[in-house]
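Record 1 of the preview.
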Amino acid sequence: MSSDRQPRLFPALNRAVRLFIAGSSLYSQRMAEKFGLHPTDMQFLNLLELLGPTTPGVLGRCSGLSSGGVTVVLDRLEKAGYIRRSRNPADRRSVLISIVPARQKKLTASYSTVQEQFHSILGGFSDEELEIVLRFFSAANEARPPATPEPI
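->
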């Protein structure tokens, strides 16, 4: 599906995606500061919201953090009252991590303006265009290298 426009479109798309990621990361950092959290804590809460209750192992695979690193993040979040650990009914040797519902509501409410803006932007696209955007992000997520870095 190559075209003569791709040499112009690829760099423009690369720039747009990088600007989006940078802006999102910096916004997430400001929100973390607002709640007295570390940016990594906010991303763990994001993962928990997306995945639902999950194990520390899954969070480690998603984040690329070691088991010790995951424990440090979870300890911070638990101490701040954002998560709870409970027995995993599927494996009595492990725990499930879940967001405390009242805290989740507070976090979700703080992102309501951003969500409204996002929905407003999406509303300007046709169903076909939205399917292309979804296909792009799905493919990019599938192609992402493993979170754990390879040895140098």
